[in-house]
Model the fold of this input.
Amino acid sequence: MSRLAGRLLTLSRAILNTPFRREPEQVRRILIAHWLLLGDTVLLAPLLAKIARQFAGAECVVLARPAVAPLLAGKPYGCTVLPFDPRDASSVKEVLASGPYDLAYVLGDNRYAWLARAAGACWIVGFDQDVPAWKNWMIDEAHAWPTSPLAWADMATELVPGSAPEAYRIGDWPTPAAAPFEMPPQPYAVLHVGASSPLKLWPAERWMALAQHLQDIGIQPVWSGGRGEEGWVDAADPERRYLRHCGNLDLAQLWHLLSGARLLVCPDTGVAHMGRVVGVPTVTLFGPGSVVLHGAGEFWAEMPYHAVTLEHFSCRDQRILFRREIDWVQRCGRSPNECQNHAACMTGISLSSVLSAISDVLLLRGESKS
Done:
């Protein structure tokens, strides 16, 4: 079955199911439909928590990219994960066969409302104003975007009625099973240098200076990066002085690496959000991204976490989130070419500010200030 055949099947089934759309009197089965990346998937935790409380006893199925799905294998907040890739027709068929559902929540891209309808969702809830307009046609309950600043993780919970979920506690999200790998000797800190964009990279010489500082105070630095990011780790440590895990760990193994660490330092990327779920003291370097949108927010407020950024940076002036324009959003989604491969918002973050944040976040965990 081709990718095109999967799309046509979704379209036809969605249209056939449209006459049966109705708000359910009783919710027994819920689908959370999306194709978010690692970070935004992890940030669905407060939504899962609120659904579990609001619809106690209902079965909840959450879609996730195949690489991310193992992180949800322990059924956080009672939700069952269903691996999904819209480019894989067999994966689409599995989602369609998993229905019907009384209720569905669509996050990010409203095109997945069509998938939810094709899977037999009777009532679909999501945020409004996606573009182009056809993406919104299957949304039954469209919510306006918040008019005042709010973290994305907290924002998603507003789709569900009721009060906000309780703040996150370590252990609320079960630790995933992972294949064995060589763990570093204690104590160690994970320095994750990779990011989704070159504009989120911190200067290599500062990473090395940070690693040397940590070694001086008795914490072994461990380099981390995803597949294809080996060059960035090499730039920070060309002599390979410190242990590295770069491209050789899956996400479940990375979870275990983080859980044993005394500290995580990384750019604003999915690994930073993993750090909050794991509970490792985390320092996140924000350049083009928004601390408001992807910082701790309310749900993660009690986690040992510290964001480092240059406030009110002049070119962090774009207002787009998931293709919607929102007045209070301040971020930068420019390409490396537009920024001449030089993000002053990252290079302007000093080593001293990161060291100060490390001291603060370790104190939040009750450790002595070194």
Summary: The radius of gyration is 21 Å. The chain has a mean pLDDT of 94. Residues 3-17 form the longest helix (15 residues).
